[in-house]
Design goal:
211 residues; alpha/beta; five-stranded parallel β-sheet; three-stranded antiparallel β-sheet; 9 helices; 50% helix; binds adenosine monophosphate
Length: 211
């Protein structure tokens, strides 16, 4: 099964993808993670993307689409698209590129979360620089401040999780990404899930609609 996991920054796409990967052997394709890793490796793609990401802006469509096509081309199956598509242009390109490789999206899951909860999650989020484990200063703090429980790596605040970037990201979401709700509703493939609450209960809601 191939899924698009869709929702605002902070809606829990990453946490839910992590569970789907470990419990249902799915493959997570996170465009945000792909960009972060390109930045870490100082590749040309990373250099291109970094300026947009630091400001909280969307990376231009053609760059993102090209990057996703590389992944699709590699023969990935049973995947979760986490953070892609984020614009109508990306959604249209997705259809074309999947057709090209005889693939399709089976479900589009929209994680709906209140604005106050999004802000709380994003501003308190901390991430391990080394293994990418995600923490929250209130809900899921590290045992030792600043040190990852899993790998002892350095835990930091993403440069786009600052107040200034968060507001740009939420605005980009509402201007460019929210139109996808109607886009997928019209196609009849949108499954709306209440994304408020605990990670495990949200996971149950997702499993109920994809099983
Ligand atoms: P995320 O980790 O999904 O929150 O993504 C972090 C940042 O990566 C976003 O704020 C954008 O700058 C960039 N990004 C990730 N996915 C996309 C996409 N599909 N389209 C444009 N920019 C993206």
């Amino acid at each position: 099964m191939n899924i698009v996991l869709f929702g605002a920054p902070g809606s829990g796409k990453g946490s839910q993808s992590e569970l789907l990967v470990s419990r249902r052997k799915m493959t997570q394709v996170s465009t945000g993670d792909l960009f972060r890793s390109a930045i870490k490796n100082k590749s040309q793609l990373g250099i291109l993307a970094q300026g947009y990401m630091d400001k909280g802006q969307l990376v231009p469509d053609q760059i993102v689409i090209g990057m996703v096509e590389e992944v699709i081309k590699s023969g990935v199956v049973n995947f979760i698209l986490d953070g892609f598509p984020r614009t109508i242009t990306q959604a249209d390109s997705l259809v074309i590129m999947l057709e090209k490789y005889s693939l399709k999206v089976d479900k589009v899951i929209y994680l709906k979360v209140s604005d106050t909860e999004l802000l709380r999650r994003l501003s308190g989020r901390r991430v391990c620089k080394n293994c990418g484990a995600v923490y929250h200063i209130d809900n899921k703090p590290t045992k030792v401040i600043g040190i990852c429980d899993k790998c002892n790596g350095e835990v930091y605040q993403r440069s786009d999780d600052t107040e200034a970037s968060i507001s740009v990201r939420l605005e980009a979401y509402s201007n460019s990404t929210m139109p996808l709700i109607d886009y997928y509703k019209t196609k009849g493939s949108l499954l709306e899930i209440d994304g408020n609450g605990q990670v495990e209960e949200i996971y149950e809601r997702i499993v109920n609609v994809i099983s």
